[in-house]
Amino acid sequence: MREQIEWQQQPFSHNQACLDLIAAKPHGILRILDDQCGFPQATDHTFLQKCHYHHGNNPLYARPKMPLPEFTVKHYAGKVTYQVHKFLDKNFDMVRQDVLDLFSHSKNRMVSSIFLKHSESVSQQRSNMRRSSAARRYQANTVSAKFQSSLQELLEKMERCNPYFVRCMKPNHRKEPGVFDMELISTQLHYSGIMETIHIRKEGYPIRMHFRSFLSRYKALLCLRDLPPADGENCVTMLHKLGPVKNGSYQLGVSKIFLKEELYQLLEGKRDRLLNIAAMTLQRYTRLCFARKKFTKLRQCVTLFKARCRGYLCRKKFALRRKYLIRFRSAVLLIVNRQRYMRTVVEPARKAEEDRINREVVNVTTLPIPAELAALLQAASGGEELHSDCLAVVQAPKVQVDPQLTLPLDINNYLMTHYIRAIFREPLFGMLTAPLESSLTRMDEELKQGALNVFILILRFMGDPNLNGAQENLFGNYIIQRGLANPSLRDEILAQVWRNPNILNSERGWLLLSSCLSAFLPSQRQAKYLLKFVSDYGPEGYDCVCQHRLLQALQQMNVGPEYVRTYPPCLLEWTANRKKAHTVLHIHCFDGVSFLCPLHSWTTGEEMAKDILQHRGVVEGRRGWSVLLKEPAQWVELEGSDYVLDLMSDLELSADFPKHNSYFIISAQEPTRVRANASISLLGGGFNMNDDVISSAITGFDGPDLEPQKGMDRYLDSLFDPVLSDGAGEVESAAGLYSRMKGAGGVGGGWQQQGQSAGPPPPPGAVRVLPVGGVMSPPIAAVAPVTLDERQAVLAQQQQAIVNQQAIIMAQQMTMQAMAMVGSPVTSPPTSPITSPPMSPLLHHPPSPYTPASPYAVIPPSPYANIPPSPYANFTPTTYAAANIPPQAQPPAEPQTQPPAPHNNPNPQPSATKTNKPEPPQLKANAAAQVQSGKDSVPRRKAPGIPINKDTRVKKFAPVVTSPPPPAEEVVKYSARSSDAIVPSQDIQEIIKRYNSPPPPPDPLPPGKRRPEGKFKKMQTPRDEALQILKPQMDNPPAPQPKRPDAPSPSASAMKEAGFKPTRNTKTRGPDRRLLIPPPVSRELPVETETIQTQLHQSTNEEHYTYTNVPWRLYLRKEVFYPKDSFNNPLVLDLIFKQIVNDTLSEACVRITRDERQKMKALFAKHGVEQNMDPVKEHVKKTIVTAARETWEIYFSRLFPASGSVGTGVQVLSVSHSGMKLLKTVKSNAAAPDYFRVLRPYTYADILFVTIPSENMLEFNLTNEKLILFSAKAPQVKHLIDTFISEIKKDSDYVIAERNFVTDDRSMLSFHKGDIIRLQVMDGLEKGHSYGCVVRKKVVFLEDLKRDTQDFGWKFGAVFGRSGAFPGECVHPIAPPDFLSLPLDRKAEPRGGAGQFAVSSAVAVAVASTMAAHEIDQTIEKVCLDGFSDGDLDERMLQDSKYDMLEFAKKYFRQGTNGRGDSLKSKSKNRDSREPTEMIKFSKTPLTESLIEFTDPAMNRVAADLFLSVMRFMGDSPSRGSTEQEVISTFLKLIGEFTLMRDEAYCQLLKQLTANTSSKPDSCQRGWRLLYILTAFHRCSEVLKPFLLKYLQQASRSAGAQYQGIAKACEQNLKKTFQYGGRIVPPNSMELKAMMAGRSSKRQLFLFPGGIERHVKIKTCSVALEVIEELCYEMSLHRLEAMEEYAIFLVTNRGQNVRPLNKHEYILDVATEAELVDTNYSFWFRRVIWTQPLKFENELCVAMHYNQILPDYRKGLLNVLPHGKVSEQQFHQISKLAALQHRAKDIIFIPSIHELSEYIATPLFKKQPPQQWVTMVTQHMQQVQTLNPHQARAQFLGLVSAFPMFGSSFFYIQSSSSTTFYAPCIVAVSQHGLHFLHKNTHELMAVVPLVEIQSSRTQRPNAGTSYPYVDLTLGDTNTQRVIQLQLEQGLELCRVIAMQVENMMSVREKRLTLPPSEITML
């Protein structure tokens, strides 16, 4: 009808009449059936008669023609006859209740849910039956009722929804497929009404569409782009355009068009055809696009293929041309390079050998060296070192460092001769050519042998010509390590290296001296002498180097305690010392900037960081920085006090070098990455492995299988491996053979070849030059790693070549040995120039010119690409040229495959640890073949053996000697002891005859011995004959020098240990070149005069050396904050911020715990901080840096290795700006990725001072204990802590007591050890005394501190005690305590107007005291003046007349001034009113100015308003419509806003009460009432306090005074206000009425646990503490300690809100506020702390505790069962407790099972059957029958008090932010801390001790949650972590924790009176 179309109603039949017949009220068939079911006597017949009676006349109802039990109903589908037999029984459908319970408790969810609803309906029906009348009580739940209710629900759902019906038709009755019964289907369609529905739809207009929808849907059929206007005409037009339309097939409405079904189907068919055409068109074009793309791609591929083919043909043609060109060029280059090689290598080598001969003073190659050094030298025989190819010369760095080196003013007084005469044993000074017999300086006997051994090493170092560059550095580092390890030898070492007049020989000495000065310092007595000596007598260049090193080290002594390096110099230092050049390092910053920073050997990490920050313009905040070495998969952190180059040294020194442990924090991903000497090493994840480029080629080893053995074992095994091997050459292990071929084998191993580089190696002396600030790219491996299969193939080929050529090689070897022994037995013969490695350059000799690599050269590449060869190299040509070698002895020249020559002694005597098995011939041949082979094999002569002296014992040295002419790769050679393995050639006799070597005479026999007799003697073969001739010459070497005494030789026992047999020495002399005897060097002291003026030298070499292409980087990082350090500089802030971001997101920093990292990431997400994000706002950076500094425990700290006593677990000591912490390293894993655990923190307030009683021992004198730690960095720890403490103590007004000071003198201050005292200014003190007050730590409640905010909780604050003088010798300055800064988040102060006065400096003149300033800034600190405490004032002092109000008025009231008023009369009036006697009396006129003179005139208006309020309340001024309550509220509000007006208000009230002459009779009485209110709310100042008290006391004690009672009440209120702070909430109307009526108290109900009621009289100023005391008295608790364990709780909203009261809260304030929220509020009294023992005498006390404990016990919270197991003893204990509970109810009968389920916790009750519980409880009931209920409760408490969780307050935690326990859980708060229990099993998950809790704070719940949050701050003020808990009773949890903490602190206060604690060893 809304659409206004023509329509007509379609008739249809409905079944309403039939439905009414069946179910209508009240007489429907189903209704009658239900009624009949309600009657007990009803039957089916009565039901049928009722139906006939009510429906007999209904046309749809038919009676049976015969009297049968049935009736017929005419339904829509037809007639249906129903039999009424058992209708009533079927309608009941009752199910037994136990069956329903069984199904409702089924474990199957579907079954239980089905019957749960049924059981609920049954229970609901039963409850209705109980409430209904008796007539309607029996109502069965019938089938018809269920049907009607379900039908009603269905109808309601259909009315709420738009139903859609799906009709299901049955095709046949037989349920067979493919059978379609038309009659059955027709019947179903007819009966279901579908036919009528179709008819109605056909006759009507079922399709109804809005005009816009119609046009939009069908516009595409007319190809319309835009939608025409939505109206009916356009719709009709569109219809007619689409095709012929029949009349009546549509109608137009107001907004819709109505269509017949036929027309709608026609339109939809056209639309579908159009959509099909559109889809096909879209598909056609899509296929076209794909085909075109495919064709284009094919065409491109064909074009590319053609291009590649053409390229291949061109490249093939080019390669052929290049091949022929290379052949031609190779022939040309061969000739050119040979000529260049002869010119640049051979000739300079010949000259260098001549220089070596001239330089060689004495042959020192026979001097013994330690075995471990020999092993190290042999390992370095290849000339390779780590970083040897990474040194380069760079341009001068931009970072400029001012060295600021100055010579001592008295340096010229320290002549070298003075030191020698005073310190040396003998006044001799000069070069020594023989080992010392005694030390040069005087030292202890146990150190002399070490000094002699060191000098042998120095002689060997300075004179051994066979050391290559790597061995030279290693030898020097070994000597320096001796000095580092033994401080007593340092002066001796420096003295032994001092003087050598031979210019050529002394170069290594000065190099060693400069390197020693780079690692350790001389003693103070030697320093200046050595400084003058090196400055005056040092060679050119070395004088500057040594002088600067010594001055730099002396400067370091003044800065810090560390004046010795941890490690010997690194390769960079050795190179710079040789070149007399400078060193720089590439330092990266986290902001992406990098610098080349100059440094020297004594530059620390902090100093280098200062230089870089200074270069970047940073003025402040440069301290506390250091550097970080980032290696692949490893981070090494350097302490700021350590030296930077120690990082390089530790990296470069081999694992076998006897170095100290490293003190770096090393974090590696794998255990193999951690260095063996690391003292603090951590394994963690988060490392970037992409830049891991370290391979076996760098380290010299090929993997773990090829790693050499350690120390002496490796050396000996490699030495004897060819002799003791039990297999042939081809059976030998591939790894061992490969390692010896690489040069890592035994003594004399071949050169260790580097990977083949792309180009030729740089010539000796070539130096790469890098630009300044060049980027250090990661190194690229030169050679791809060789697989094991390839190695074995190469080894097999090499072994076969060795076997084929061993005979020729062995003959050649024997020939060379014979020639060597006969030709040159004494001197070192010249060797081939191609075998010498580059070493140290000679002084005054320029380096060789650049020489490119020659294809003929077999010299290995130099270990230093930028260092020329050393003139020590054996480059003199020899007569034994390579041409003497037969051609067939030369294998193909392949550098990687040449066989090594690891042993020149093929058969030494095996050691005792080896088995003496006969060697097979093949082994002997292989052993001999390995001596000389390859293209670079040259003849070498054997060295003579060393003389053996059996009488001399040399300690700590193995008999290791070197031959004079060893090959370049050999370090140590041994004389041949046996010739068994030597296979001579057939011409050996001719060789012997040619040299005419007569056979030696037979050795004479010792007396008493005979030759062994034999029956037969074998004839000597030519081989034996030759060996007999050669043996004496091989066994008897000459002395090193004829004129000097013999050097100490190894003992026979030492020789045996090394595997050699001692032989007799017969000195022989060869006929060849003799060593020139050096001219004697005079050792007499030179005559020194003081004419030499020592000058500061300047470096002449401006080159700068650095590392490049190394796999590591150095980063600048902030290590530690100094106490007053800031990060306000934008650059410093940015660097720290990016460092934090990098360490947080990389997850490789071991200083950050998982919780800290997660919270920081959350902070990043909050501010949108990401990796490499730039720029970031400055406030965000400050927020993040501040959060990291304040919350991260050890991130900004310096870590030192430390240890304590056994069992403490201390491993690391952390020192930061907030204090120090004892740490323990823990193993990290994915679940707990933390690396350090804080064992115990200490603040600087706890540390008195630090001492070092002995070496490496630290003694911390703390406030209450002494702490002993051991650390190798003890001096650095002490220096850093002393620095921090000294900075913290600056401008500090606090001291700490070092010992007790107790006195009875009231003017003196008593304190105990550990008390913190605040100093105050006081004049007139005695000398040595100070003045101050003791500061105590106190729990402060936030709701008291911030009364106008919503903050609840508590934190630590400070309370100041009485002041007094004390001796200064008993205290020690400390930093201010952390709890003094309590009011952190103060509200913004008022600005402008009168409010600004509260924060200004305008202090009242009358109250000119510190109290006035204190009241301006209200904090928790209390200031006590004039010696008065918070208690009562001295009564005698109040008797003094100086405390009269008249005296106060004279001193502080306004004084009369001239010029006031307009007339003479007014002047006189004002003058009279300004008299003090008049100003303190009653006034009828309002005041215009304040009584007290204020500096701010705005206060006059406030004072006038106050006085007007006083007059209105007293009735002396009209109220102007204001009620008494409004006047009181205005009065108190003004005083609260302007705190300085408190004294003014008191003075105004006293003025109006004094001499009151008001016309109102009750004016004075109302004034006293107002004073009563004022004293309850606000206190006066300390200045007015004695005057006011005296006034009130006089009024209360005056005889006949009218207001004695109220004056006394005012005095009591004032004292309580001073004690508790005063009330806050203004009185409500009822309280004010009671006050005005003279009633000052009310009875308040307090509830005990269990519902016990007690009424307490509450006065105006009653606080919770007074109520607790009164209730405790009633329970017979009189001790103060017992009362402190109870608390009062305010309960509102029917128990939903529970708030514990502060003991100083006013009860009426709390009640007034609670009444506004809930008028049914209540106060509960409960016990919170359970430290005091229980008292069982008082019945109320026992009942109270019993009722409080019982609920927790019944929940199973008090007893913790491990793993849920209950023992038999616990079963009996629980049974007895159940019996006691039953008896406490005064019941003597046996409890039922239901009662026992209440007495026993549910988890425990299920542990055994109920009947078993009944049996056990029955046994105990017989024992408790004699007890009365009181005794039963007492015994119950006694038993329960032994449970673990007894005395705890339990709270249910909904959620938690902690990771140590999971929520929901239960927290139990007790004196032992916070115990977090599992919510179901109650097992302990985590414990937080009370000492770790710093504060708690509640937060409002977030949106969508109903419970508040509690933030618990744990740890200490320096390292805090916050745990957030969500629970319903948040405020109650905060207050309970606060009470526990207060109790703990009170216990500690009592302990202060005890003697000081003993030393605590940690």
Give your account of this protein's structure:
It is a single chain. The protein is built from 58 helices and 41 strands. The C terminus is likely disordered. The longest helix is centred in the first third of the chain and has 99 residues, at 261-359. The strands form 7 sheets. Strands 28-24-25-26-27-38-39-40-34-35-36-37 form a 12-stranded antiparallel beta sheet. Helices cover 39% and strands 12% of the residues.
Helix/strand class: alpha+beta
**Mean of the pLDDT scores?**
75
Give the N-to-C terminal Cα separation. 98 Å
Global outline = extended
Strand percentage: 5-15%
Percentage of residues in helical conformation: 25-40%
Total helices: the number is 58
The count of strands amounts to 41
Q: Low-confidence parts lasting 5 or more residues at pLDDT below 50?
A: 133-138, 683-712, 718-788, 818-989, 991-1018, 1036-1076, 1383-1432, 1458-1472, 1953-1962
Strands of the largest sheet, in order across it? 28-24-25-26-27-38-39-40-34-35-36-37
What does the radius of gyration come to? 54 Å
Largest sheet: number of strands, sense, barrel closure? 12 strands, antiparallel
Annotate the secondary structure layout.
Elements: H1 16-23, H2 29-38, H3 44-55, E1 61-62, E2 70-74, E3 79-83, H4 87-92, H5 97-104, H6 109-131, H7 143-160, H8 182-191, H9 194-203, E4 207-210, H10 211-218, H11 232-242, E5 250-252, E6 256-259, H12 261-359, H13 371-379, E7 391-394, H14 416-423, H15 445-463, H16 469-485, H17 490-496, H18 507-517, H19 524-537, H20 542-559, H21 571-579, E8 582-588, E9 594-599, H22 605-615, E10 625-631, E11 634-637, H23 645-652, E12 662-668, E13 678-683, H24 696-699, H25 711-724, H26 734-741, E14 769-770, H27 788-823, H28 921-929, H29 988-995, H30 1022-1035, H31 1052-1058, E15 1104-1107, E16 1113-1118, H32 1130-1146, H33 1154-1167, H34 1178-1191, E17 1197-1201, E18 1212-1216, E19 1219-1225, E20 1236-1243, E21 1247-1251, E22 1257-1262, E23 1266-1270, H35 1274-1289, E24 1294-1297, E25 1316-1319, E26 1329-1341, H36 1342-1345, E27 1353-1367, E28 1371-1374, H37 1410-1416, H38 1435-1438, H39 1445-1452, H40 1464-1473, H41 1476-1479, H42 1498-1514, H43 1524-1537, H44 1541-1553, H45 1563-1577, H46 1585-1597, H47 1604-1620, H48 1629-1636, E29 1641-1647, E30 1653-1659, H49 1664-1674, H50 1680-1683, ...
Parallel strand pairs: 7-14, 8-15, 8-16, 12-13, 23-41, 29-33
Antiparallel strand pairs: 1-2, 2-3, 4-6, 5-6, 7-15, 8-9, 10-11, 10-16, 11-12, 17-18, 18-19, 19-20, 21-22, 22-23, 24-25, 24-28, 25-26, 26-27, 27-38, 29-30, 31-32, 31-33, 34-35, 34-40, 35-36, 36-37, 38-39, 39-40
Helix pairs in contact: 2-3, 5-6, 10-11, 13-16, 13-25, 15-16, 18-20, 19-20, 27-28, 27-29, 32-34, 33-34, 42-43, 42-44, 44-45, 45-47, 46-47, 52-57, 53-56, 53-57
